[in-house]
From TrEMBL:
UniProt name for this protein: Cytochrome bc1 complex Rieske iron-sulfur subunit
Upper taxonomic lineage: Bacteria, Bacillati, Actinomycetota, Actinomycetes, Kitasatosporales
Organism: Streptomyces gibsoniae
PROSITE patterns in the record: RIESKE
SUPFAM superfamilies linked to this entry: ISP domain (SSF50022)
Protein location: Cell membrane
Membrane topology: Multi-pass membrane protein
Keywords of this entry: 2Fe-2S, Cell membrane, Disulfide bond, Electron transport, Iron, Iron-sulfur, Membrane, Metal-binding, Oxidoreductase, Respiratory chain, Transmembrane, Transmembrane helix, Transport
Sequence intervals crossing the membrane: 58-79, 99-119, 163-183
Length: 352
């Protein structure tokens, strides 16, 4: 079909150098504007029968909408208020509410669907470039603003009343100081408090649920186990403070599934131990996806890969989960081989 058969409004705009035109990159201009891609006609642009079909589809959708509206009115008038029907899987609900919701939903949906289909298939799809107007104000506007400002300054006698002017500037300059002093309420700097947890060489890993020291055989492949350091009991006065730093999660991986091989020397028989505290803003991580070895923080969906050094693979967390170096003592119980080597939890100003 020739371009004479195409409706005029569907013909592509001429490409010129001003509106998205193709420009050739050279040494002076290495990032030349590539221009718009060539215009592709839709089937409706070149086939009158396809256009007619689209027209009928749109009309059909609008007709269905009208029928649904009539159904809405009929439902309202004819269905008794107290009649109920069974709708799987919801159960028994008011028949009138169901009919009203259904008909109104269909009426609105088909209007939307008709409008979208109309726009996508029949309305003009010619791409145009709209140049922005200059941001700088016209000289006469600038002159007027300046004149207004000078008139205002004169009327307020700012230039003549130097005492008022200077004290006003002094007051404006000092007001923000009150805000600065309030910063003190953020508390004292944490110093080394955030750098150390209760984990240390030889500290046994105690199951958070059973309160019993753990053996490697207690940790099955595919399960997520939470642990705390031995001696930390809920009755301790500072339990919340300590567990917020020392909470640990353990998973057993097949050694061949461990991507970051540095993990192997820190783990025991494929059991890896990571801080349970999210490195975004410190929520406890709790969701483990067995197939991928990903753990998910429920607060803002940060996702960490436990088979790859606790690396962040999604979400706002800023750094990987710290790993705890673990081993087994002479009695066969899992133990820590030291503290975390970096602070657990979110970033803070002294983290470095
Ligand atoms: S605290 Fe974990 S993603 Fe925000």
């Amino acid at each position: 079909m020739s371009s004479q058969d195409i409706p005029e409004e569907n013909l592509p705009a001429e490409q010129d150098t001003e509106h998205g035109a193709v420009a050739v990159a050279d040494e002076e201009n290495p990032f030349a504007d590539p221009g718009l891609p060539p215009h592709e006609h839709r089937i409706q642009d070149i086939d009158a029968r396809a256009a007619k079909r689209s027209e009928r589809t749109v009309a059909l959708l609008f007709t269905v909408s009208m029928l649904a509206t009539l159904g809405f009115i009929a439902s309202y008038v004819t269905i008794p208020n107290d009649r109920s029907i069974y709708v799987f899987p919801i159960g028994h609900i008011s028949a009138m509410n169901f009919a009203l919701g259904l008909t109104l939903g269909v009426a609105l949906f088909t209007i939307g669907a008709g409008a979208v289909h109309w726009a996508r298939t029949l309305m003009s799809d010619v791409e145009v470039a709209d140049e922005r107007h200059p941001i700088e104000a016209a000289p006469e506007v600038k002159a007027k603003v300046l004149a207004d400002f000078q008139a205002g300054a004169k009327e307020s006698q700012l230039g003549r009343r130097s005492l008022i002017r200077n004290t006003m500037f002094g007051a404006l300059a000092m007001v923000p100081l009150s805000g600065l002093f309030l910063l003190r309420d953020l508390g004292t700097l944490p110093g080394t408090k955030l750098r150390h947890t209760l984990w240390s060489q030889g500290k046994l890993l105690v199951n958070m649920n059973t309160n019993q020291p753990m053996r490697p055989s207690d940790i099955a492949v595919g399960s997520l186990t939470f642990a705390k350091p031995e001696g930390l009991e809920e009755t301790n006065e500072d339990f919340q403070k300590q567990i917020a730093k020392a909470a640990l999660m353990l998973v057993r991986l097949q050694p061949e599934n461990i991507k970051d091989k540095r993990e192997l020397s820190w783990s025991h028989e494929g059991i890896v131990a990571y801080s349970k505290i999210c490195t975004h803003v410190g929520c406890p991580i709790s969701l483990y996806e067995q197939q991928t070895h990903h753990v998910l923080c429920p607060c803002h969906q940060s996702t960490f890969d436990l088979s790859d050094g606790g690396r962040v693979i999604f979400g706002p967390a800023g750094h990987a989960l710290p790993q705890l170096h673990i081993g087994v003592n002479a009695d066969g119980y899992l133990e820590a081989l030291g503290d975390f080597e970096e602070p657990v939890g979110p970033a803070f100003w002294e983290r470095g």
